């Protein structure tokens, strides 16, 4: 597998040259402020002890407290978390929210643990990191395989250990624990807003009113974005999860599909749809392809075979730098992760802000504020890319680096 961290550093070097940033500034940004590795002992239900590896990387806080999710995955390692922390720094700067960049994780397959084991593991992560966390220091949130319930255990543990009563130490909490309205679908909805803001610039001959959309990944982000696009009249032709995909040229009923997956645990066999592989799904002709699962799914091997008119990255790092070049040369525009999926962290920032002020905003208010921020950052990213005659990813990176530089 490609090393996401090396990819991120290569991207940094590329834009450093494009805009002639000072060498010292770029060199400093190549290193995290803090690289914390922990061992978390957990007593399993059978009484045995298992030690898990955990991480928190605090990359940079020039713009505000470190901010970023916690990932639970068997393949998660320090390099992945470092790359994601670095990308969080860039992402927060692209949106202009007053947050820095961080990321955490545990190498674990959560499906192999009972609920009690998962809770002890999550509390253990906080026990080891409590001195580094806090509303004005480092504010974690959910990421792959971490849920609002996990956040509520973590907040509880943080409050017990510190004696502080502040929900603002974590975001992505359940509503009754100080969570924000709209946080669940925020990444998907944010992607929809960004797509609309950039749509006029995406294809020379324009995209049709109702686009044919393909979504790879059907977790929180993938299922929400599929539902939102479908509710707005777009035709979601194909979706997939880690086991495989389904396809119906005339569009899938996403609401029904979400229920179907809940009931059966799988997408396969959904009425009126044909089962396809993830490889077939990525290569199916469409107006918009949305990778919404994991990193490095579009590589130099499959990039030349893609038949999408535009691509929007809702996962972090789904396109390798080599594939990015191929797509750029082929004239396929890519809306980069650091802009496209920033809706999640933006509503996390709203949650933090509401907690600190003791407020609770309606979902309508949250979505309105989200749209204002994403419209503005999409416009600024587009203008920056145009000014430098480059792609949207480089434009977004440069916008972010300029903002960080101003506060460094
Ligand atoms: N995990 C999400 C991301 O990668 C959200 C982070 C947050 O809300 O802090 O952007």
Automatic annotation (TrEMBL):
Keywords: NAD, Nucleotide-binding, Oxidoreductase. The active site is at 103 (proton donor). InterPro entries: Aminoacid_DH-like_N_sf, Glu/Leu/Phe/Val/Trp_DH, Glu/Leu/Phe/Val/Trp_DH_C, Glu/Leu/Phe/Val/Trp_DH_dimer, Glu_DH, NAD(P)-bd_dom_sf, NAD_bind_Glu_DH. GO terms for biological process: L-glutamate catabolic process. One of its GO terms (molecular function) is nucleotide binding. NAD(+) binds at residues 187, 220. Substrate binds at residues 67, 91, 348. This is Glutamate dehydrogenase. It comes from Candidatus Nomurabacteria bacterium RIFCSPHIGHO2_01_FULL_40_20. The lineage of its organism: Bacteria, Candidatus Nomuraibacteriota.
